[in-house]
Amino acid sequence: MAILGGESLSMVKMALGGAQKSNNFFTMILAKTQLIPLPINPISIIATNLPSRTISKIQFKDMGTTYNIAGDTTFGDWSITIRTYQFIDYRQIKSWCESIHAPMSGKRSLPKVYKTTCTLSQIDHKTGLPFTNFIIKGVYPVSISDIKYSEDTSDLITFDVTFNVDDVITL
Predict the structure, then answer these.
(1) CA distances from 160 to 12, 124, 157 (A)
(2) CA–CA gap between residue 138 and residue 32 (Å, rounded)
(3) Residue 167: which residues within 8 A CB-CB, separation 6 or more?
(4) Whole-prediction pTM value?
(5) In Å, what is the CA distance from 124 to each residue of 9, 44, 45, 114?
(6) d(CA 166, CA 58)
(7) What is the pLDDT, as a whole number, of residue 44?
(8) What would the DSSP string read from start to end of 70-86?
(9) 15 with 44: CB under 8 angstroms?
(10) Residue 21 and residue 128 in contact, taking contact as beta carbons nearer than 8 Å
């Protein structure tokens, strides 16, 4: 489960009907600029992962011997699976994507406009307090999965969002 906008834990419990499980996550996306149309409604994240971290190696040779030293650090993508009761969450993330690049007009935004910082907190299901926190910097969506419709589809909507990230800091 995620909170995008700072809603209280009790509000989210009430909205989603029931106590929180130990594997639920809450996240808040913080805008660096007012131009980003960020989600502000409670969003239920049912699955997430922390981005992988890779440190490249730089090789250099000295008198016939090859040495390896640490190079640049890069981070993998951050994926979340969202479960929601309304299409508003999907529309808000889609709007964020369109603010990055609008295919019909060809307009593109600058990174300082669409990138933001996200706080990911794992909430203790007994106390309702965060016990693990991460700051994820340079966040922006790179893909939104499809939503499948069928006759037996419930009111719940589930879709995946993949974000590109610049840095992950553990608090």
Answers:
(1) 20, 24, 10
(2) 10
(3) 75, 136, 137, 138
(4) 0.73
(5) 11, 16, 15, 31
(6) 20
(7) 66
(8) EEEEEE--EEEEEEESS
(9) no
(10) no
What type of residue is 10?
S
- How crowded is residue 5: how many other Cβ atoms within 10 Å of its Cβ? 13
The answer to whether residues 26 and 119 touch, using CB atoms and an 8 Å cutoff, is: no
Among the listed residues 1, 85, 3, the one whose alpha carbon sits nearest the alpha carbon of residue 44 = 1
**Splitting the chain (171 residues) into consecutive groups of 10 residues, what average pLDDT does each group show?**
44 45 56 50 72 93 93 92 75 83 86 84 74 87 82 74 92 84
Residue 29's beta-bridge partner residues?
Answer: 118
